[in-house]
């Protein structure tokens, strides 16, 4: 089978970088490797850090003039085409391998296979602790039945339960390096971001539906007349009937953010009560409990639901917290200058990309240097 070198180079690069490629392309690459010892050897060599370093030294020692003279020397057309194809293959592979080589030779031992691998846990009201990746079909837990399919956990009340037990609370915990989608017993859809927990009862009361959130979640609430849906955080209560909104309320951040996409919501603290319209965001200062309303572009706020980082003049400190939660890395600032954390960054990139990709983009747009070593990102000023 004749292989287009440029097409294959692009496919192999995506495969090595763990990028989002469909099953058909992934199988195509694996079939090529299984059917060709040369391609399998190339794959293994591109994953071999020591061999790559040695090859870089060889490349740097090349005298390109003799090679150029050989390529341009008059020969039969067929031989020239064959040579051109070989050169194109080498150029294509080198062109796409260089970024990979750069990542592998910087000294980082970050395991990109763990991106998005966080294991979400369900703690039921009767004391059971279940890792949700082990549930592939319907399971019965206390008064609940849970069904996990295509990464979505559907929770319903177990109708065959002979007697309803006391109405205890269940907790879903999403660790760093993971997100999770949940459908609650009333049909409300909840996307949970990294480092978040959602607490909900075995049975919603007849008068209201109450959940408690720590972290970040996007809610698509099913309307139920006379039965409001209430999201409680440590500092605020959000009351809705049927709407779509995003809540970000991490314990290690000084503000909470509630952003409305559809419908209407009412927010309250011990000191204030406010309502907002679609396209507005409420910022809660946790220290003063003051609520500040502003108009906002909602797209960057909810991009994480589609597995995207979308930074829009976002302070570096906020950017790094997002990366820390998703990639499970520590953040270290080499300089004491507080203004470094206030530098703003903008850009849109897939969450499943290697963190080095994002850091290199940041380095091109500012005066800072980012170094990923093992599981720590060190930030310093460029010399």
Structure overview:
- By secondary structure, the chain is of the alpha+beta class.
- The protein folds into 3 domains: 5-105, no CATH class; 113-301, Jelly Rolls (Sandwich); 307-381, Phage tail protein beta-alpha-beta fold (3-Layer(bab) Sandwich).
- It contains 9 helices and 23 strands.
- The strands form 3 sheets. The protein has an 18-stranded mixed β-sheet that branches. The protein has a 3-stranded mixed β-sheet with strand order 20-23-22.
- The chain is globular, with a radius of gyration of 26 Å.
What is the strand tally? Answer: 23
Shape: globular
Q: Figure out the total of helices.
A: 9
The overall pLDDT average reads: 80
Which stretches of 5+ consecutive residues score pLDDT under 50? 56-62
The largest sheet is: 18 strands, mixed
Short description:
Helices cover about 30% and strands about 35% of the residues.
Highlighted features:
383 residues; alpha+beta; Phage tail protein beta-alpha-beta fold; 3 domains; 18-stranded mixed sheet; three-stranded mixed sheet; 23 strands; 29% helix; globular
Give the helices and strands, then pairings.
Elements: H1 5-16, H2 23-35, H3 37-46, H4 49-60, H5 64-72, H6 77-105, E1 121-123, E2 129-131, E3 139-141, E4 144-149, E5 152-157, E6 169-174, E7 180-183, E8 189-192, E9 196-201, E10 209-220, E11 229-232, E12 237-240, E13 244-249, E14 255-262, E15 265-268, E16 273-276, E17 280-285, E18 291-295, H7 299-302, E19 308-315, H8 316-327, E20 330-333, E21 344-350, H9 355-364, E22 368-373, E23 376-381
Parallel strand pairs: 5-7, 10-11, 20-23
Antiparallel strand pairs: 1-2, 1-6, 3-4, 4-5, 6-9, 7-8, 8-10, 9-10, 10-13, 11-12, 12-15, 13-14, 14-17, 15-16, 17-18, 19-21, 22-23
